[in-house]
Structure formats: structure tokens, C-alpha cells
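User: Thanks for the earlier help. One more: Elongation factor G-like protein. Can you show the sequence and predicted structure together?

Assistant: Of course, both are below.
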Amino acid sequence: MADRPDMVRNVVLVGHSGAGKTTLVESLLAATKTIQRTGRIEDGTTVSDFDEVEMRQQRSVNLTVAPVVHNDIKINFLDTPGYADFVGDLRAGLRAADAALFVVSAAEGIDGLTKMLWEECAAVGMPRAVVITKIDHQRADFEEVLTVCQDAFGDSVAPLYLPVVTNGKVNGLIGLLSQKFYNYATGTRTENAPGPDYQGQIEEHRDALIEGIIQESEDESLMDRYLSGEQIDTKVLIDDLEKAVARGGFYPVLAAGTGVGAAEILELVTQGFPSPMEHPMPEITTIDGKPVSGIVCDPDGPLVAEVVKTTSDPYVGRISLVRVFSGTLRPDMTVHVSGHGLADRGHEDHDVDERIGALSSPLGKVQRPAGKCVAGDIVAVAKLSRAETGDTLSDKENPLLMTAWTMPEPLLPVAIQARSKADDDKLGQALNRLTAEDPTLRLENNAETKQLVLWCMGEAHVDVLLDRLSKRHGVEVEKVDLRVPLRETFGGKCQVMGRNVKQTGGHGQYAICHLEVEPLPSGGGFEFVDKIVGGVVPRQFIPSVEKGVRTQMTRGVVAGYPMVDIRVTLYDGKAHSVDSSDMAFQIAGALALKEAAAKVPTLLLEPVDEVAVLVADDYVGSVMSDLSSRRGRVLGTEPVGVGRTLVRAEVPELEITRYAIDLRSMSHGTGTFQRTFLRYEPLPSHLVDKVTG
């Protein structure tokens, strides 16, 4: 663990699945002698992908931290999943980091999700650099992918190094500022002068790099000196480069391949990326929401830390990955744990005091004991039983709360049920552990459909959750068809009688009520009108009729769905001085409502949502056509920023249960949407049998 914040760098690796993030982490671990040999994803031997699910699927699904030490500076490399379903862990990595390495494959380029993440980092001013990996791949094209990155990320993206390829093999890198050839042909880096064949390429890229650095320089005279032909000292350029990178104004491009590029990346990270002391502090408030100012990254300051990742194991218990923003975290100290703002996802607001267990520095699945964690560093904390992902840890005498980072809304509903009674008994506890780990998971017990619904980010997210239930918690579940809650209403007006007359030994039942039933406009709810005159139904039994009608409405009259949007008028009836009772008139009211179903058509109503879809302009036409094919009504479009459009539509819920998957496919992972319940509308007759059958 680090002793001072200025000796720490927290760097998150960002990029689409398959770009080479995990492999790059392996090479950085090996280059710093943290591990003796690099592992392979195909063999399931990498440090980052140690989860059983990751080894089986051969892709990252979790945020993991890989600490290394280079030139006495501790670097916490945060390896994030590249697949959109696991964006929650990606956002957690962005929160814990002070800078980002965007990892781009020289063989595949970038995707839409990577562009969106670049924009997110730009919005908060996070320093960034680009690493083009797989430069030794047979389909690699460094120059082409560099151009793609510059087009996507802007003019302030420029290479620091150029790969040297001989007979399809990468032998080394040419430093554009140093104008040296770093030769890796023998397995260790040696410095040589680059050959004359590369001079033209070097000059072209070097001029562009120098101009980019000078444009971001705080020395305004530097540009005039450069334009007048003066040779700017390399040390001045490097100093200005490091300052521009640290403040997020310039984005260098590096190259990496098998055994090549790790030293250059480590040099940039330690010298160019900011320490936690230079990174802005997230917004901090008191527990009741009052802003708190003046807190900085100081080991001697008040404790403010955040749980960025939670994992739970049936044998080890709960382990919390914690980024300390202020103060110092030590074993056995008592802290205040605060979690607010995620009640809608099954995370109730909580404020409790807990004792810190053992601290450790995680390296994959290995936990190495740690004596303390100072501000700016990242540590694993054992057995915080109440802490969940996103919670704040602070001094118990002065509890504070960090504003939660933005989490995407899970929009893919999946209904599940336990496979056996034994599984059902264990399911609740297992799901509680999963929701504590994963803020992108929302758990719903639907009271109407009697279904247990997991709201997830996508199919891959579902697969991982079910796998963890089975393998980690020993709970077998199966997916079942999702039921959408419908409603019933009457399609016309009628008059009916509810007759409940039964004679038995002793007191019988006697209640007769005459009702007029009519539909109300959509959203009208329920109205009960009393038009009794002359006391034909005693006053004390009129509420009983209404209660009976309401009870029957909740049960429905045809398909078992709740009834809405009707007016019921009680205009006549009869009572008996002995046999009439509250219950007798409740039953009569319910019978009258069922009788109405035999006289007028009963309509099934389906829920309709207002949907707002944000997509790149290229996909607007496809999205609008698709929404129309789902019985949707497109309300309009509006531009959002540059190159994006918001499409608004009204779509039946029955048609968008899998829209999260379909939109991702349609927009190549770049589309997002939000849905809000709007109203109920009649279900088309040709779909009634399909839905109720």
C-alpha cells in the first residue's frame, strides 16, 4: 500500500470487448515483475479474469484491480468489462479512477460504445490516453486505426510512438519526441537510432505532435517561437505534454503488442497522469443532504471513502473494494456506512455503524494483507455486512455521503422461479446478495402477476446472474414467460341486479341491489354514486355495496385482471330487518358486477409506455420503423448534441419487453432508451386470445 497520495495513480482501462484490456494488464504486471509470467485468456490463467464465469466465457464481466509499482509509484490498474451488459462495473471503474486508458485493437478499431464513453470522460474532464493494442496481429493496421481514433476522439489525439514492423513482426517502437528506436527484438528494450526509411514518417507525425503539445501549452510564447523556426527543447515539450495530459487537454496515443509497449505505458502513467491529489473530489454532503466543502485528498483529513465494488462468497463472506478519497482507513476502526438513492432497485436507504475487518491489497483472487489505506488508494475490506456497492464510509462522529455515480437503468425484465422447494428457500438470501453487489440489477416482486422479475441490462447480464445463483449460491432457477399486467373494463352501459338471498337455520342472508354500470374515459379510475332514496337500502349498507364492488374489481370479471375506469351507480335495492348484513350487501355488490359482464362486452386493456430513444442519427430511420412495427405511435424527434437524435413514441408494454436487446442490435450498442408508464388502452381483439390463452 502507498504511504502518500502523490505516490498513487488510479487508471481505468476502457474499451470494447476483445480490444485487449486484460491481456494488456497481464503485460504490465509482468513488466513490473508483479507476476513471473503472463497468463492467457484462452487458458483461464489471467490475473484479472479469475471468476469462474469469466474463465468459461473467456471475457471480463467484473471490475478488477491490478496494483503494480513502477519507479516507486503505485499504479492501480482497473480492468473493466467491455460488453455493454456490464456497464455498471465500467462506471464503477470510472468513479474509482483519476485517469483512463482507452484500449483500441489495431485489428478491429473502435465501436459506438467506446465513443460514448469518451464523451462521458470528456464531460467530467478526465485525463485520457489511447493504447492501440494487437499491433502484431496479422490484420493490424496502426495508421488506419490511428486515423479512426483521431476522427472519433478529436484533434488533440496524437501518437507518441510509432511501431516498427519487419516481415510481419513488431521489433520495437520509435519515440517521436526522443527520435529514438526502442528495440524489443532481443526480448529486452535497447535504444538505437531509427533507420533512414522511417524519417519521412517520423517528421510527419512529430510535427503534428509538437503542434498539438504547443497548442495546449501554458507558455503562450512557445507557438511564436516554434512558428519562427526555433527548435524547441525536448525537455520543454515533455514537461508541457505531461501537464496537458494531466489536466485532460491532450490525449497521447501509445502502441502495444506481445512483449512491446509496457515500459512506455508505465512511463506515461507515472509521469503524465495526475495523482489523486490533482483529481476533483466528488460532491459530498451530510446525511440530510447539506453540501460539504473543503474536503481534499489528505490522509489526515476526515474519512470519506466509497465502496466501488462488492463481491460475496458463501465461504469467504462479503468483500468490499473501497476507494479512499480522504482520511486513512485502518483495520478494526468503526465507520459509518451510508447508502441512499437506490431504493427503487431494492437497495433500501441505510445508515449504520460497522467495524472494519481485515484490509488487503487484491491482485486478482489473491488478497495480500495491508496495514492501512491512505487517501487516494484502493483497498479491499472484509466482512462489511451492510455495505453495498455505491455506499459511503465515513467517520461515525461526522457521517458524510458521496453523491452516487450515474447508473444506467436496467430495462430487460426476466421472470424466474425456483426449480424446487429447497431452491425457493434459499432464493431470497441469494438474490439479496446479488443486488448488494450489482446496482444495475433491480429486483421486483410483482404483486399483480405474482412473478419474481429480475430487471437486467441484457441477455449476457441475465446469463451471469443465473450462473452465479447456481454455481456460487447453489440455487437453481428457471426462466418463465413474463406476464404483463393487463386491466379489464366494460365496453358499454347497462343496469344489473345483485341478488344475495339465502335462508338457512337462524339468520340468513338478504341483500338486493340495483346498479347501473358504465365505462369512464381512460384514466378515469372508479366512481361510486349513491342515488338511493326512501331508505330502500339502509344507509349503513351503502358502503358495503361499494366495498363488494371494489373487491370484485380487484379480481376482475372475465380474465382475472383488475377492473378500471368504470362508474357504478346504486339506484335501488331491498333489505330485510333481520337477515340483511354488511357481508350480505358486499356479496350482492360483487354479484351485480359479475352480472354486468354477461350483459355488455368486457374489454381487456394493455399498459402503454412513453418511450424516449436516444440514437445516433444514422439509426433514426430504423428505430422509427421498428417502433411502428411494434404498434407504436411515433410522436416526434429532436436533435440532442451533435450527431444524435431523441425519438419519442408511445408503445404498448407487450411489445417492448425485449426492446433492450433489440435496440442494442439495431444501433450497434449505441442506442439507449427510457420508458415511463402512460395509460391503459384497449388490447386489439386479435391479440386477446394470445395474451389470455
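User: Great, one quick takeaway?

Assistant: The CA atoms of residues 506 and 579 lie 9 Å apart.
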